[in-house]
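step 4 of 6: structure.
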Amino acid sequence: MTQKKASLWKLFSTFFRIGAFTFGGGLAMLPLIERQVVETQGWVDRDEMLDIVALSQSIPGAIAVNCSVFIGLRLRGLPGAIAAMLGTMTPSVLVILIIAHFFTQFQSSTVLLRAFSGIKAAVIGLLAAAAFKVGRKAVVNRYGLVAAVCAFVLSAFKLLPAVWIIILGAVGGILYFSRRQGGEAQ
Amino acid sequence: MIFWELFSGFFKIGLFTIGGGYAMLALIQEELVRRSWMTPQEFVDVVGIAEMTPGPVAINSATFVGFRVAGIPGALLTSLAVVLPSLLCGIAVTRAWDKYKEARPVQMMFAGLRPVVAGLIAAAALTIATATFRYVEGLSGMIWTALIAGGAFYAVAFRKLDPILVIAAGALLGLILFR
């Protein structure tokens, strides 16, 4: 275990920054979390990060919140989980409270709409980059290639909810690796 | 008691939605309309706003509805209610994970899951790309969108730029390039 110690304030402020720049829901925040949590702070390594992402999609709730709960728990237990979770939530709660006051002006603001079109375009690139980086590391054998392609097709064409795809992946992993290790042992 | 109803309503929304914000939307809508806290049309507006503001969609909608129904106390209550299931499940799963993560079947399971996560992220990229291109106006808008997306990909995948900078740059380019 070579986890760096994280102060509660550091957890809160790191996830505050992640929450403030997460547009487009769930997985769009993955590149941000990875950058902060894996590269900048060194709190978890990349493999653990992938496990956390899979778990985050398998339990109830928003992916970003689940991710912050898991990382907070790992680093500082329950207080850490609460600090990280509040950090993720605070920007969105503040922004919505402000917008709720100016609801109609906000809807017709073309300046914001234009800025948002640019953000959405950037988010496409960020997600593609995340898939590329994760894929390069995770797809290392035939099983990996088949699993990644199947997950992509099932999810992109909305054939199965994400949680079922993850359960299938878990079962597939156990079947594939136990058979392969059994073969090596003989 | 309106506060209890808000709390239990959003706790339920948090508890029964797995797989992230967009999966939550159908349930949120059903719950809100059933309790007549919001009309379907208002809900569409809230989703639009949630997409344009930072943070998870579930929290955005929870805060908005709580504020509409019971002011700032309502907003804080709904926002906490919707994340409480995450905290509880997170604690339970982490306990089990710490206990069994060295076990062979658990390691095989996660080895099997990692490529699946890559596929799911790629699918999310495609989903956002199709949704975005559908609403882009004109050929120049499409070209700019493609260029910004391509630039963002290159910057993060090969230049290791901070994604926060890339998003800020995307907002700025959007202001300049789109109309």
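step 5 of 6: annotate
 - Chain B has two domains: 2-100, 104-177.
 - The radius of gyration of chain B is 20 Å.
step 6 of 6: archive
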